[in-house]
Amino acid sequence: MMQAVRLHEIGGPQNLRLDEVPVPRAESGEVLVRLRFAAFNRRDVFITQGLYPGIDLPRIIGSDGAGVVDGTNGEVVIDPMLGWGDDPHVWGAGASILGMPRDGTFAQYVAVPRENIHAKPSHLSWEEAAALPLAGLTAYRATFTRGELKAGETVLIPGVGGGVQSFALLFAKASGARAIVTSGSDEKLERAKSLGADVAINYREFPDWHKKVGRGEVDLVIDSSGGDTVAKSLSVVRPGGRIVIYGGTRREATFALFPLFWNHVDIRGTSMGSPQDFRAMLDFVSEHGVHPVVDRVFDMSDAASAAERLAQNDQFGKVVLRIE
Ligand SMILES: NC(=O)c1ccc[n+]([C@@H]2O[C@H](COP(=O)([O-])OP(=O)(O)OC[C@H]3O[C@@H](n4cnc5c(N)ncnc54)[C@H](OP(=O)(O)O)[C@@H]3O)[C@@H](O)[C@H]2O)c1
Questions:
Q1: Which residue's C-alpha comes closest to atom 1 of ligand 1?
Q2: Is the pTM of this model over 0.90?
Q3: Cα–chain center distance at 1
Q4: Domain boundary, last residue among 250, 269, 288
Q5: Which is nearest to 67 in space by CA: 41, 39, 38?
């Protein structure tokens, strides 16, 4: 038997419970990983709230994890993107994400397809390695594969405290770009500046934060907050610039079409990333010595409080779970 954090019913983070369940069996083509640390994504909170398709309960949630392949010394991180398919441009019909509907990483063991394990970057601690997979993959594809960010360009990263956005900042700075960030908290803005953000604006203090950014100053916007962020971004992105969207925390966005078509702006959607993106992300992180931003580490027995921290937007970077 093993310990695992399972969601029993929809209703919020308080419905996460530490249970004793059987150790999963690795089927043919799979490996069993003894997890050391796991990490939260907004997705896990959305699942507890019923805001995700295909929820099947009870289920061990969690997409991020790092650990040791059972019976070996192989230290690995897990790519949570399952069955991406053959086309690197877009996932196929069989694609899914570890942690729903398939049992995830908030457990002592997880069984995953062999092709989803990769050597843990040696410069990372276990906590940092566990923080990397889903948000690192999503940010890498948004920044480079879809966003085509180049050295010397300016990228706008709204809501920099988010898990994915913290990686977008790290990746942008490591690649020699200039970064303008926003956040609802001065403390998070200070943290972002210490990580290299060139301009930092509080969107609560300045609801018209876009007026503090020069018209046409931005080459690329990377967003998941939705709401009025897209309209405001359209007023600062340069003619011919790009807006990459990987999420919609505030569900919908309304914006005028004129600045979009008049300025030949590309709006591009992206989700997770291909196996090629994951490998490129690991190479980039190793080559540039990138360390994920770990916000706080919680014990498995305290998973509900960890999820609540995300639900309240209190974190900067990644909330990590210690697997005993
Ligand atoms: N499509 C995909 O593959 C994919 C992958 C990962 C995530 N996502 C989606 O992307 C979103 C972020 O995920 P995450 O795990 O990084 O979430 P997270 O760590 O919970 O980050 C959410 C952040 O959103 C920011 N935010 C909230 N309201 C905002 C506003 N009015 N303006 C600007 N920023 C605002 C906050 O930043 P501050 O605290 O700095 O204010 C908050 O910390 C979620 O909707 C998630 O479902 C999609």
A1: 271
A2: yes
A3: 30
A4: 269
A5: 38
Q: Fill in the amino acid letter for 261.
A: F
Is the shortest distance between the CB of 188 and ligand 1 below 6 Å? yes
Structure token pair of residue 144: 């480079």
Q: Which residues of the chain have pLDDT under 70?
A: none
The residue behind tokens 């309240």 is: 312
The C-alpha atoms of residue 324 and residue 314 are separated, in whole angstroms, by 25
**Is the beta carbon of 146 within 6 A of some atom in ligand 1?**
no
End-of-domain residue from the set 269, 290, 310: 269
Residue located via tokens 């309209």: 231
Q: Among the atoms of ligand 1, which is closest to the Cα of residue 270?
A: 1
Task: Give the total number of structural domains in the chain.
Answer: 2
Q: How many CB atoms lie within 10 A of CB 121?
A: 20
Residue 177: count other Cβ atoms within 10 Å of its Cβ. Answer: 22
Domain contains 55:
yes
Beta-strand ranges (E) seen in the chain are 2-7, 16-21, 30-39, 59-60, 64-69, 75-78, 81-82, 96-97, 109-113, 117-119, 154-157, 178-183, 199-202, 218-223, 237-245, 266-269, 294-299, 318-322
Q: Which domain holds residue 280?
A: 2-134+273-322
Classified as helix, coil or strand, 211 is helix
For the chain, the C-alpha Rg in angstroms (whole number) is 19
Q: What is the pLDDT of residue 323?
A: 98
Residue with the smallest CA separation from ligand 1 atom 23 is 162
Q: 208 with 236, same domain?
A: yes
My answer on whether 123 and 96 are in the same domain is: yes
pLDDT, residue 276, reads: 98
